[in-house]
């Protein structure tokens, strides 16, 4: 049984790592707080991800400076000492890596109850191994997060039919820099990922951009980061009408304001997929070396919007950080742009199954 709403408590929640992983904590924490009105949450993560948690009632974001003040064992000890001032009732470790386990140790020795994420590594190894692959859906990462809170005495039914957040305000200065929306619908395209095995071939994605640019009812907004990505997206924006690149131009808070107003996001298995899902934006996700079965699918998105092809070797890794052992990246190279466009046009034109 969960605690009653009359019992005030403060939970410390830890999740460091990449933006997409941190973004997946948001819908879980939002619903946790909605289910327990007397609960407070202190969210500890990399200071870069603070905009993801703005305007969530009863949530305090505490920035971890893991490359500076809080680096290494003694830095983490300083972080622990600072966090004790929040009168924490229990600790939810949603990461389970060396940094967070050191913090778990500090809190456990200090007398705090600690619950740690079960990453499901054995079943993920069976899913990704070369031979005898067990291709079946595993527990979603968001549900694994919810399990951590349940172990602390805060169970709740996680719903995926409601958008976790409202988009941030679109500042007038930002709106002035963006294409006028008018009657056009904004479609975001995020064609890159951290690892090559999760990235659709640029020439194939350019074909998709060129085809959608022919539609007069759409304004395409390109998302990316890093100098090479910025350059390529600027080239696409210059080549096709109705295409604008946002890459490298705006803060995360401004990007969230833009993403929250999209009619559709086309993304790899990457952070932008998760960011769009926070606002209930339909997401067409493209999958290669990784697979939605590993549990990192976008929150609240239907299965039919995950574009992929069936291959005996998929998935070959959980995170896409393992080089293609075939050497031909067939999972992406054999995925035709027409398959992506078919789903995109079905969603945009309301012909969804």
Automatic annotation (TrEMBL):
Annotated InterPro entries: Glyco_trans_9 (IPR002201), LPS_LOS_Heptosyltrfase (IPR051199)
Key word Glycosyltransferase present: yes
Tagged with keyword Transferase: yes
Gene3D superfamilies: Glycogen Phosphorylase B
Keywords: Glycosyltransferase, Transferase
Pfam (any one): Glyco_transf_9
Domain of life: Bacteria
Protein's recorded name: Glycosyltransferase family 9 protein
């Amino acid at each position: 049984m969960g605690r009653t709403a009359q019992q005030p408590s403060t939970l410390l929640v830890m999740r460091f790592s990449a933006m997409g992983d941190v973004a997946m904590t948001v819908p879980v924490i939002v619903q946790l707080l909605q289910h327990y009105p007397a609960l407070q949450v202190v969210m500890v993560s990399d200071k870069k991800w603070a905009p993801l948690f703005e305007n969530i009632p009863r949530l305090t974001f505490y920035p971890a400076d893991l490359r500076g003040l809080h680096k290494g064992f003694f830095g983490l000890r300083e972080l622990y000492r600072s966090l004790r001032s929040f009168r924490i009732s229990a600790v939810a470790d949603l990461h389970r890596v060396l940094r967070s386990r050191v913090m778990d140790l500090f809190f456990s020795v200090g007398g705090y109850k600690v619950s740690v994420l079960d990453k499901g590594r054995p079943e993920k190894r069976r899913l990704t191994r070369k031979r005898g692959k067990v291709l079946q859906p595993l527990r979603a990462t968001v549900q694994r997060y919810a399990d951590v809170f349940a172990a602390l005495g805060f169970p709740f039914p996680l719903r995926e039919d409601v958008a976790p957040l409202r988009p941030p305000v679109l500042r007038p200065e930002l709106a002035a820099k963006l294409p006028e929306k008018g009657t056009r619908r904004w479609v975001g395209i995020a064609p890159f990922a951290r690892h090559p095995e999760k990235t659709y071939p640029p020439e194939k994605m350019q074909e998709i951009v060129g085809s959608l640019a022919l539609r007069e009812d759409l304004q395409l907004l390109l998302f990316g980061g890093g100098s090479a990505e910025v350059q390529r997206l600027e080239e696409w924006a210059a080549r096709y009408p109705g295409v604008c690149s946002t890459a490298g131009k705006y803060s995360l808070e401004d990007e969230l304001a833009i993403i929250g107003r999209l009619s559709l996001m086309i993304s790899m298995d990457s952070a932008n997929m998760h960011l769009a899902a926070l606002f209930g934006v339909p997401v067409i996700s493209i999958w290669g070396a990784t697979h939605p079965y590993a549990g990192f699918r976008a929150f609240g998105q239907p299965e039919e919007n995950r574009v992929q092809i069936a291959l005996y070797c998929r998935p070959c890794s959980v995170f896409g950080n393992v080089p293609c052992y075939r050497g031909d990246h067939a999972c992406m190279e054999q995925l035709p742009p027409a398959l992506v466009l078919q789903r995109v046009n079905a969603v945009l034109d309301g012909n969804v199954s």
